[in-house]
Amino acid sequence: MRLWDSTPGDNGTARPAPGPMNDPDRYPVPAGTHRVDEEIRRSRFITTIGRASTIDDAADFVRRVREEHARATHNCWAYVVGPPGATGHVGMSDDGEPRGTAGRPMLNALLHSGIGDIVAVVTRYYGGTKLGTGGLVRAYGGGVQQALASMPRAERVEWASLHVVIDYARLSVVQQLFTEHEVQIVSQEFGSEIRFDLRLPASGRDRFRAAVLDATRGQAEIRN
């Protein structure tokens, strides 16, 4: 099994494709492994979705599902590693289904889901009735959409660290900024000055820095 580090074409060759980009430091991700089960014209389709922060994570997830369903007719898969809609690290496989009927609709569903760092495997146990090209596209893409609709979500946050030194006269006004900017206190030291080691979402670091300097009239010391 090979996972492509780019947007794959239907024949398995890599090619670039455009896609929307959200905040690369903060975005929704799957909260854990989630599964839905559906029967379509006597075939059983099991969609399993999970989080994949790296391409290796996606490969491991696909491998585990394939081992769990080793007797299945097909284990088709797709993944998006990175922010929602990003196409720099994506992959898909039809796993023996007619070209473009499984991996592509699954990947399209993931790219338009608003979820990042996500991998999906749709397992099919063939029931003896052919679905046709359109039926397969609807089954595989629809299975992913159904799983996404009920999937618990978490948030991926890229954290940044800051060291802030202020005088006692500015303590109250700076503390008020902590909640507003989702700042967490890692450590604090009260001496001749007040020293904070803080962490906060990286996407808000510059805004917080500017707010502290404004609140202290430029008297705060701020270091990464």
Compact summary:
With 224 residues, this protein is an alpha+beta fold.
Q: What distance lies between the first and last C-alpha atoms, to the nearest angstrom?
A: 42 Å
Question: Structural class of the secondary elements?
Answer: alpha+beta
Order of helices and strands: EEEHEEHEHEEHEEHE
The count of DSSP E runs of length 2 or more, i.e. the number of strands, is: 11
Overall pLDDT level: 89
The helix tally amounts to: 5
Coarse morphology: rod-shaped
- Beta-strand portion reads 25-35%
Describe the structure.
It is a single chain. The protein is built from 5 helices and 11 strands; from the N terminus they run βββαββαβαββαββαβ. With 224 residues, the protein is an alpha+beta fold. α2 packs parallel to α3. It starts with 25 loop residues before the first strand and ends with a strand.
Which secondary structure elements does this structure contain, and how are they paired or packed?
Elements: E1 26-30, E2 34-40, E3 43-51, H1 55-68, E4 74-80, E5 90-93, H2 103-111, E6 118-125, H3 132-150, E7 153-157, E8 159-166, H4 171-180, E9 184-190, E10 194-201, H5 205-215, E11 221-223
Antiparallel strand pairs: 1-7, 2-3, 3-6, 4-5, 4-6, 8-10, 8-11, 9-10
Helix pairs in contact: 2-3
